[in-house]
Amino acid sequence: MCRLFGLNSGHTRIRATFWLLDAPDSLEAQSRRNVDGSGVGYFDPAGVPVIDKEPEPAFRDPDFLHAAKECESETFVAHVRLASTGGRTMANTHPFTMRGRVFAHNGGFGELAKLEERLGGYRGLVKGDTDSERFFALITKETDARGGDVTAGITAAATWVGANLPVAALNIILAMPGEFWALRYPDQHALHVLERPAKAGLTARSSMSSYQSDDLATADSVLVASERLDGETGWRMLQPGELLRVKPDLSIESVIAVPDPPARLIPIGAGNPNIDT
Predict the structure, then answer these.
(1) Residue 275 domain-assigned (yes or no)
(2) CA torsion 43→13→53→162, rounded to 10°?
(3) In three state form, how does the secondary structure of the chain look?
(4) Number of domains in the chain
(5) Which stretch of 126-130, 132-136, 263-267, 269-273 has the lowest confidence by average pLDDT?
(6) What is the pTM of this model?
(7) What do you get for the CA distance between the two ends of the chain, in Å?
């Protein structure tokens, strides 16, 4: 199934090389089990989203490897894909960007035609075939309807999907410069958070860790990931329905945004042609 990664270092621009390439369970390592696409989203110094992605696994994608080693940002979103909804194409590869935000999703839901009806004119923001990008468009619509309040937009979108569509999982990361949001819903896919103070002493799989060790030694950060990427003990599993906001000062707001389970839960492994996990 797909895997998510988010990193925020607040006001400090860093590289994410350790977590993307060198951690014991890095995104590059996970891409050997999730081979249908990979991507990294981040922000340039002006706050404009930059997306490096290809419908290839990260371990053989030069753009992913370049972004992991060289690109600096205060916020990163990365994704490795195991596809079932939509073909192995650039348009269907995560992350996606809309209205200056970057988004990636792990999980899936069905009855996309009903969601497209809900989107109305926001359907025009969708370029590919995935349920994920359609959910991002719904979040965008609900955020606009609430004056740009992203927390309220994610809550409204996830609540509507949970009440109206068959759902396997809506685990997401949505980022803006210097902050991101992460939702775990319901409880079928894992999503972990790590609040990490600046420190050295990282354990890497290879010598490439020299790209990132200095950054992690001097900058505090908060991470969210589908899997615990290393052996640090501070990882915490998000609760079902929990929505985190990691702010530019690295403080965290947490709320159980979607307390009710999906009205129609699709058990993992049930198999559904409309689920992109």
Answers:
(1) yes
(2) -70
(3) CCEEEEEECCCCCECCHHHHHHCCCCHHHHCCCCCCCEEEEEECCCCCEEEEEECCCHHHCHHHHHHHHHCCECEEEEEECCCCCCCCCCCCCCCEEECCEEEEEEEEECCHHHHHHHHHHHHHHCCCCCHHHHHHHHHHHHHHHCCCCHHHHHHHHHHHHHHHCEEEEEEEEEEECCEEEEEECCCCCCCEEEEECCCCCCCCCCHHHHHCHHHHHHCCEEEEECCCCCCCCCCEECCCCEEEEECCCCCEEEEECCCCCCCEECCCCCCCCCCCC
(4) 1
(5) 269-273
(6) 0.90
(7) 5
What is residue 234's three-state secondary structure? coil
CA dist 271 and 250 (Å) reads: 39
| Residue from 129, 96, 113, 242 nearest 165 by CA | 113
Q: How many CB atoms lie within 10 A of CB 64?
A: 27
Is the CB of residue 191 less than 8 Å from the CB of residue 4?
yes
Asked if pLDDT for residue 167 goes beyond 90, the answer is yes
Residue 46 lies in a domain: no
Contact criterion met (CB below 8 Å) for 17 and 208: yes
In a domain, 215, yes or no: no
Instruction: Give pLDDT tens digits for 57-113.
Output: 777 878 888 888 889 999 999 987 765 655 667 678 889 999 999 999 999 999 999
User: So what's the pLDDT on residue 102?
Assistant: 98
With 50 as the cut, is the pLDDT of residue 12 above it? yes
Place of tokens 């192995």: 88
Quote the Cα angle for 39-41-111, to 5°: 70
Kindly state whether residue 25 falls inside one of the protein's structural domains: no
Q: Could you list the residue range(s) of the whole structural domain that residue 183 is in? A: 96-169+179-190+250-277
